[in-house]
Design a protein that fits this description.
Elements (H helix, E strand, L loop, with lengths): L1 H16 L7 H9 L12 E7 L2 E6 L10 H16 L5 E6 L10 H9 L6 H24 L4 E5 L2 E3 L1 H7 L3 E5 L3 E3 L13 H9 L2 H10 L3 E2 H7 L4 E3 L2 H16 L3 H15 L3 H15 L3 H11 L13
Parallel strand pairs: 2-3, 3-4, 4-6, 5-7, 6-9
Antiparallel strand pairs: 1-2, 7-8
Helix pairs in contact: 1-13, 3-5, 6-7, 7-8, 11-12
């Protein structure tokens, strides 16, 4: 039966692909040779590089300011990940911080004045404009979820305030053994408003612990972060963590982009909907996605005992 099945798959594969020409293959080979993505990925607060085939590294790049999040950063995060979402040369992303720690959170020196001096002729108009600013800042991290490419956070040192908002919008989180996490907002007189309070309960799954962290602003050290489910792996140091994150991203990037990106979209949809709704959504999604040639290619590779890394999938 296995031989018959293999013959059928090979026949279908030949028929499906025999008339297809991929003029992009030579371009793909040339672009992969470069260590840098397209020149449009040039930012003040972020450093973007290609670290593996189809893997981008986005580094928070204000080390002298402990990667504090200024107004330029909030804008550039949206620009960067909107471009990555449309870049067919990228299949997975690793986000880390330059310098001594991942991020000190919001840049209070600069951003304090932005929110304290909201324009408006009366209280209602000021409140309206304040809400608009908050929604704009929320998008700076929601863009990580909206990007269909898996995003891996690699945290070393402190991850404070806005840093928690950022990593909670990522798909996978790694950290070093010296990493620590702090929902800091109550200590500066406000409730976290760009994602932590909405996403952290779904990540940790322990409302009591989330409440404790959010009400007290205490530090959570790496072992507790791992045991609670905030991170999935802890590494000895930053270099080992980055290598682990890059290898994970490369493994993901080597698989069918139709399968991986469809999986991310459906995981996020199911998180926010009931089981019946999620099942209906994936049925509608797969009624077209199951017709991809990636299934035939993957089945052929499995029959020939090859890895998905040996398969050349079309761009997406």
């Amino acid at each position: 039966m296995a031989a018959v099945a293999g013959s059928v798959v090979r026949g279908l594969l030949r028929r499906q692909l025999s008339t297809q020409i991929h003029p992009w293959l030579s371009f793909r080979a040339m672009s992969s040779a470069s260590g840098q993505p397209h020149a449009s990925h040039s930012y003040e607060t972020l450093k973007v590089s290609r670290v593996r085939e189809k893997v981008f590294h986005v580094e928070l790049n204000r080390p002298d300011k402990r990667n504090a999040m200024n107004s330029v950063f909030w804008r550039e995060m949206v620009e960067c990940f909107n471009k990555i979402a449309q870049d067919s040369e990228c299949h997975a992303v690793v986000v880390s911080g330059a310098g001594k720690l991942f991020s000190a959170g919001i840049d209070l020196v600069e951003m304090g004045s932005v929110f304290m001096m909201v324009e408006g002729d009366d209280m209602a108009r000021k409140a309206w404009n304040m809400r608009k600013k908050i929604r704009e800042h929320q998008e700076s991290f929601s863009v990580l979820e909206k990007c269909s490419k898996p995003v891996i956070a690699a945290v070393h040192g402190g991850c404070i305030g806005g840093g928690i908002d950022l990593i909670s919008a990522c798909d996978i989180r790694y950290c070093t053994q010296d990493a620590w996490f702090q929902v800091k907002e109550v200590d500066i007189g406000l409730a976290a408003d760009v994602g932590t309070l909405q996403r952290l309960p779904r990540i940790i799954g322990n409302q009591s612990l989330v409440n404790e962290l959010a009400f007290t602003a205490r530090k959570m050290m790496a072992p507790e972060a791992e045991s609670s489910g905030l991170v999935s792996r802890v590494f000895q140091d930053k270099q080992a963590m980055l290598e682990g994150a890059f290898e994970l991203a490369a493994d993901i990037a080597g698989k069918s982009p139709v399968a991986v990106q469809g999986t991310k979209i459906n995981i996020l949809y199911s998180r926010d909907h009931s089981v019946p709704e999620g099942l209906r959504y994936i049925a509608t999604w797969n009624m077209s996605m199951l017709q991809t040639e990636d299934i035939l290619k993957s089945a052929q590779a499995a029959l020939e005992k090859k890895s998905p890394k040996d398969v050349v999938y079309s761009k997406l």
